[in-house]
Amino acid sequence: MKTIDEVDLIDDTFMNLVASDPDVGEIFCRTLLSVLLQKDIGSVKVLSQRVIPGTYEGMRGIRLDVEVTETSDKSPELIANVYDIEPHTSKEPDMFRMMRFRQAKIDSRFMKSGDNDFSHLPDLYVILITNFDPFGEDYMLYTINNSCAEVPTLSCDDGLKFLYFNTIGRKGGSDSIRNVLEYMQNSRKSSAVDTATKEIDKCVDNVRHDPAIRGKYMTFGDKLDREFLKGKEIGQQIGEQKTLIRQICNKMSKGMSISEIAEDLETDEAKISIICDVVRKHAPEYDQNAILEELQSTMESALV
């Protein structure tokens, strides 16, 4: 493993340290995104290593290396854009299906149960930065949008973009994108050749010389692995909770009493009673996601 003085931004562990730094993280992400996307970036919030657990017991979750949310200029309380930034140094055979799965998990968090207004769904940019060419065409940037096979010029405004940046690509892009990608690959002061890369290098230098970060860098990767395992456990718990709610909904719809349900499920009657009180509010639809959300927010002890 490289030391903190040797490691480059293409390393996801080091990228996380810089992006999550309280002093320079937001500046770093704004600068990086403004160059890669060739647009101005407004007010942002940065979260690194966010774990999104599986929806049901035994189902896979994801871990986001760096998630940046950008608020709307017109409504600062609303999220306008979400940027998932993923450095990636291993070419996997099913990488594109993996990206499809990531997008679905990310989007699922932004629509609440019962919300039918999909204009609330923010634009999503899934950004993969690789040190290899994922398509073999020598481009530094591949932008993938949903399109129509029959009418190639037909636009589909679904707010979704997949962007694959290739640090060794020579075609397309721009000089500023090329400079940033080269800095990602070789994060040294000698690679800071324009305003943006010099700003990014300041952020990197700040993190490298932070005594607290230097002391914990070697164990940071292990910590991330532990957090991911914790996320998997949370996903299993949610699956178990949903199973219990589903069973109770089915039995209540058949007219069973609380004591009968508790005996049938071999579960504490007081716990069943609390859950049944919430379930009744959602009859006859019995929206299990809405029931779980209410229980988690107001009666968390009922699901322990």
Tell me what the structure shows.
- This protein is of the alpha/beta class and about 300 residues long.
- It folds into two domains: about 10-210, no CATH class; about 235-304, no CATH class.
- It is about 45% helix and about 15% strand.
- It is built from nine helices and six strands, in the order ααβββαβββαααααα.
- The chain has helices at about 10-20, 25-35, 95-105, 175-185, 195-210, 210-255, 260-265, 270-280, 290-300; strands at about 45-50, 60-70, 80-90, 125-130, 140-145, 160-165.
- Strands 1-2-3-4-6-5 form a six-stranded mixed sheet, sandwiched between helices.
- Strand 2 (about 60-70) and strand 3 form a beta hairpin.
Give the low-pLDDT segments: 299-304
End-to-end Cα distance, whole Å, is 40 Å
Task: Sum up the overall morphology in one term.
Answer: elongated
Calculate Rg over CA atoms.
Answer: 23 Å
Number of helices: 9
Number of domains: 2
Q: Beta-strand level of the residues, as a percent range? A: 15-25%
User: What is the spatial order of strands in the main beta sheet?
Assistant: 1-2-3-4-6-5
SS-based structural class? alpha/beta
Number of strands: 6
Mean pLDDT: 84
Helical content class = 40-55%
Summarize the main sheet: 6 strands, mixed
Order of helix and strand elements from N to C terminus: HHEEEHEEEHHHHHH
